[in-house]
Each structure stands twice: as structure tokens, then as C-alpha cells.
Predict the structure of Putative tRNA (cytidine(32)/guanosine(34)-2'-O)-methyltransferase.
Amino acid sequence: MTPVPSQEGWVTGPHPLPSRPGGVRAEMGRSSKDKRDIYYRLAKEEGWRARSAFKLLQLDEEFQLFEGVRRAVDLCAAPGSWSQVLSRKLKGGAGEGPDSVKIVAVDLQAMAPLPGVVQIQGDITKVSTAQEIIQHFEGQPADLVVCDGAPDVTGLHDIDEYIQAQLLLAALNITTHVLNKGGTFVAKIFRGKDVTLLYSQLRIFFPDVTCAKPRSSRNSSIEAFVVCRGYCPPEGYVPNMSNPLLDHCYDVDFNQLEGPNRVIVPFLACGDLSAYDSDRTYPLQLAPGKEYSYVPPTQPPIRPPYQEACFLKRNNLLTKEPGPSPLEEAGPAPSYGSAPEPQGCPPEAAVENVLASLSVSP
Ligand SMILES: C[S@@+](CC[C@H](N)C(=O)[O-])C[C@H]1O[C@@H](n2cnc3c(N)ncnc32)[C@H](O)[C@@H]1O
């Protein structure tokens, strides 16, 4: 059974459902999400920044990912729950563990600081990001690279699967720059119709590839995780970022391919079967006579990608109606920077001005 970290320390056994202090008015909308998503609720109660922490914990339970790891990289890390897992597992949580253990987290977005985790705000498709990671490891390669990266899903499945596959290949590419021979790479994958093509590309670099579905990952989602062990690049392979997304033209012996190459890899449903089922609704556990007390998220996003949309919506700029620029009515956007004077702008230009001003740090 996985030891489950709590804010106070480590506890073992099944995930506890802590009793809550009473007296706080139940907030219906919020508590209904807590009821529907047990891992979301547990994440807040145990101090994780996101429910995905449980996915990495359950993968580790199955594959002992952290054994002997001194240098770990968390790609696409924000808001940071996987980095929290790495920090707690490798460094004991307070960032005070052995100095020899180093963790680097990378994301496009800013992330609140975490003890014992060096943060890079950067793009995993850039060679400069790979160089920065290696710099933090003082020239040494990493033992473990994890990537829970995901693009913003559009709801159009083919597009979402394609973009996710490209992000996985970008993660694989940067991993080939920073991972030690024999090291492990774990990454989110969408099990779409072309997934076998991805497996074949992973098998070029790793002899041991398994697709795993942790219990905390909803069955209703096509998300799973590839666990790739024993990093062993083909002879003569020189990492480079000129094609950060790699291309589909090599087989497992690094020969140029004519047609598509597909392999089947083992699939493993992992996580203790007694663990909570992420597709089920669990009742809120309330002490007799007590009302549910809502726990706020552990770490709200610093600069969420939807910030711009919220601003536009608040100022009625999302719909373009004929007549005067809605920006004129909304006024300038002082809290986001100084938008250029919008007078006389057509709505499109006004929106562009606002967006331009939004790219300036507040
Ligand atoms: C699902 S979230 C990761 C959650 C994280 N593992 C956690 O446990 O808190 C996906 C992240 O991927 C990041 N991302 C997407 N494309 C990226 C890229 N090219 N470079 C760096 N980060 C990227 C997004 O900014 C987003 O924060």
C-alpha cells in the first residue's frame, strides 16, 4: 500500500477521509465537485497542488520509479503536484534531504516555489531549456524524467490526440538530451488510434516500454502513462533540437522507414484496487450534526492561461457587436498594464490592443 503523504507527515494505509471541523456553511457548487471527484478532494486535504499527484504515486507504487534516483526532471510541471511528489519522495518533503538529490521543474507557466525544486520557466521544445537543466545538474545527466504535459484540449478528439502526441515527442526529444543511459522516462499519452506508432518511437530509445493506467486516472479518459525504462539511444544517435518533435521515419534499429511502423506494448492497470475509483461519486463524510467545510485549492495558478479570457468576458469584449468599441465603455485595463488608447478602434483592433497590453507583466 502506498504511504499517503498528509500535510502533517506520512501515513500508511488506505487514503483516509479525514473528519472535518463543523460550523462552516456548506458551499453547494464547490462541495458537489468535492463529492464527484474524490481525488480532487483528497488532493486539497493532503496538500497536493493537483489531483494528478496520485497518478505519479500510483505509478511509483507499481514501478518503483524513485529507487536510486539522485537527479530528476519534471517536464510540464505547473502547478507542481508531480514536483511535490518528487520532492517528498526524494528529499523528504522539506527540501532538506540529501544535497546530492536535485530536482528541476520546467513549465511554460510560472509556478509557486517548492522547497528543494529548481524551477525553469521555459519551453520543452527549446534546446536552451535542455542546456539549463543540465546546468542545474552541474553537467550530470538525470536518472528520471517525468512529463505530465498536456496542451489545452479543444474537445476535437483527433486534434487533441495529435497535439498530445507531438508534446510527448517533444518531451522524448528533450529527454534524449538530459537522461542518463539506463534512466527512466514517464510521460502522459493519449491512447488514440495511432498510439502504436508512438510506442514504436519510444522503443527506439527504450527496450522496456509499458503503458500504465493508474487508478486515479479516470477510465472515461483516454489518458494513460508510458513508463519507459533502460534508456539506450541507438548507436550514433546525437541529440538535437532541429526537429524537436522528432519525425516518424525510424524503426527500432534506427533504420529509415518507408511506411508506418507499429508495435504493441504491455498495458497495465495499476494502483491498488482498493484505492478510490476515480469514476465513482463518493459521499462527503460528515460527522453527525456537522456541515461540510470546503477546503480551498492548495495552490491557485499564478497566471492562469484563462486570465485573458476572464478579462475580455468581464469587459464584454468576447462578443463583437456593431457600434462603439466595447473597450471604450469598459475603459482601460489598469490592472493588466497600459492598453493603447482605443478610441476609434474597431472592436477587433481593440481586442488586439488589450491582448497586447496583457502580454506586459502586471
Ligand atoms: C496537466 S498540466 C501538468 C500538471 C502537473 N504535472 C502537476 O501535477 O501539477 C500540463 C502543463 O503542461 C504545460 N506545457 C504544455 N506545453 C508545454 C511546453 N511546450 N513546454 C513547457 N510546458 C508545457 C502547461 O503549461 C501545463 O502547465
